[in-house]
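Handoff note, outgoing to incoming analyst
You'll be picking up this chain. Sequence as last confirmed:
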Amino acid sequence: MTTVTTDPTYGRSSNWLARTEAWMDARGKSAWIAAMVLGFIFFWPLGLALLAYMIWSKRMFSSKSCTRKSSRVTMSRSTGNRAFDAYKADTLRRLEEEQGNFEAFLERLREAKDKAEFDQFMDDRAKRDDTATSA
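Most recent structure output, in case you need it:
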């Protein structure tokens, strides 16, 4: 007969590590770097282990912070106030439309600048060809 025993200490270390990792993630990349530097100062293998973990988990080179991801989720969530949610949705839609219009304006501006530079190049080339043929 097999008996199952539950050990309350089993899994506690992984829970502790997960809580520590979540705590460090909440504070951002600077907390990870500070922990790594302190690890190198007090016990160099610990700093080396943290550096290896940061590189392996891509925490060191990620461009987005964990807090930014959670703030975007919070922004899209409903507040429960329908009037405010409608106002927020309308404002976000208007801002997106304005951003699209501005990007289209910038594209037209770049095209106009490119055309002006090309026209100037062609005029300079034509003048250079005229002076070369008359000489």
